[in-house]
Write a structure and sequence with these properties.
Belongs to the Dus family. DusA subfamily. One of its GO terms (molecular function) is tRNA-dihydrouridine20a synthase activity. InterPro entries: Aldolase_TIM, DUS-like_FMN-bd, DusA, tRNA_hU_synthase_CS. Its EC number is 1.3.1.91. There is one protein chain. The chain is α/β, with parallel strands linked by helices. The chain is built from 20 helices and twelve strands. It has two domains: 306 residues, TIM Barrel, CATH 3.20.20.70; 64 residues, Four Helix Bundle (Hemerythrin (Met), subunit A) (Up-down Bundle). Strands 1, 2, 3, 4, 5, 7, 9, 10, 11 and 12 form a ten-stranded parallel sheet that branches. A two-stranded parallel sheet has the order 6-8. Helix 4 packs parallel to helix 6, helix 6 runs parallel beside helix 7 and helix 7 runs parallel beside helix 9. The longest helix has 14 residues. The chain is globular.
Length: 395
């Protein structure tokens, strides 16, 4: 069932994570939560336009509501990607302005675009003009020396009037992701073109800053510019991104969390939908954050402790259904496993996402060990999963 409406607000979402949030992980999570907003892994605009779309973008109807996250800095390409996302049935398209990897920096997308809010605004505007689904932006609170609140606020203002971050080396190489926080005008242009092509929302995900550009003023400037392009939804990773000197893994832990900057952003841009991301691991923390922002995005905790989301629909969407037990979650996956196994997909490529389901429960080590030792073997099928289930208590 599709729960999207033109002004749909999802208080809880699971962050896009490379090599993690593929279609198999998303289907697995849908056995526990029907309502939480899910994201794809980040896909570059070039891959979407020139690659195998079914392989890269295909999904099951059960995975909705679902957002396609795009990495890139060329407004016209991003606008085409937004149209493709809408045509394929995605509920939103999100522009990554938060990834700080070197690949992203070299490609001029991701977090470095926070320094180019006008470019982001143009992209958002073009994307939003082409689709009816929302176009959103994910970004950091700052980059490098641009980490003042005012810089972030300016970014949001510019991009939201039109209608961004991953810090990995891959993103830096492609000039997308977190490096785009230094290019708010470029982000705004891209968002504008994307929004012009679709009716679904175009959103932006970004950091609070990059490198030495981590004042609140830097982030505010980014948001101001990009929001002027028409983007009305920003997902903010509450850590700045160091484009030089830190790896993507280090960028997830070393820069301090600055939730107060994201809260201030919501106060100063009350008309925008502000979602916070970074370091949040429990639903009690989510409830606390929802007092200050519109929505919360959980990343690594969702992958490491997936059963946390078994009560998400009850806690955040008012549903009265009874959560499945962990054993029932696995058994609900059997038809899905049979379908993909019959098409040549290896068991371990699906079940690797399910290894953490029993974390903290008696027998979890035996469960992981059995699947890890047998799931990759030629011909491994559901019988391997059934046997692994005997290693853990049915709770």
């Amino acid at each position: 069932m599709n729960f999207t409406s033109p002004n749909q607000v999802y208080p809880l979402s699971i962050a896009p994570m490379m090599d993690r949030t593929d279609r198999h992980f998303r289907y697995f999570m849908r056995q526990m939560t029907r309502r939480t907003l899910l994201y794809t892994e980040m896909v570059t605009s070039a891959a979407i336009i020139h690659g195998d779309r079914n392989k890269l973008l295909g999904f099951s109807p059960e995975e909705k509501p679902l957002v396609l996250q795009v990495g890139g800095d060329q407004p016209q390409e991003l606008a085409i990607c937004a149209e493709i996302a809408e045509d394929m049935g995605y509920d939103q398209v999100n522009l990554n302005v938060g990834c700080p990897s070197s690949r992203v920096l070299d490609g001029n997308f991701g977090a470095c675009l926070m320094a180019q809010p006008q470019r982001v605004a143009e992209a958002v505007s073009k994307m939003q003009s082409r689709v009816k689904i929302p176009v959103t932006v994910k970004h950091r609170i700052g980059i490098d020396d641009r980490d003042r609140y005012e810089d972030m606020a300016n970014f949001v203002q510019i991009v939201s009037a039109s209608g961004v971050g991953c810090p990995s080396s891959r993103v830096l190489d492609g000039n997308f992701g977190a490096c785009l926080m230094a290019q708010p005008q470029r982000v705004a242009e891209a968002v504008s073109k994307m929004q012009s092509r679709v009716k679904i929302p175009v959103t932006v995900k970004h950091r609070i800053g990059i490198d030495d550009r981590d004042r609140y003023e830097d982030m505010a400037n980014f948001v101001q510019i990009v929001s002027a392009s028409g983007c009305q939804q920003f997902t903010v990773h509450a850590r700045k991104a160091w484009l030089q000197g830190l790896s993507p893994k280090e960028n997830r832990d070393i820069p301090p969390l600055r939730y107060e900057d994201v809260h201030r952003l919501k106060q100063e841009f009350p008309h925008l939908l502000i979602e916070i991301n970074g370091g949040l691991t429990t639903f009690s923390q989510v409830h606390e954050q929802l007092k200050s922002v519109d929505a919360v995005m959980i990343g690594r905790a969702a992958y490491d402790h997936p059963y946390l989301f078994a009560t998400a629909d009850q806690e955040f969407y008012g549903e009265e259904t009874t959560p499945l037990t962990r054993h029932q979650v696995v058994e609900a996956m059997f038809p899905y496993l049979e379908y993909w196994l019959s098409r040549g997909v290896k068991l371990n490529s699906i079940m690797r996402h399910v290894l953490q389901l029993f974390t903290g429960q008696p027998g979890t080590k035996a469960w992981k060990r059995y699947l890890s030792e047998n799931g990759y073997l030629p011909g491994a099928g559901i019988e391997v999963v059934r046997e692994a289930l005997t290693q853990v208590i049915n709770l």
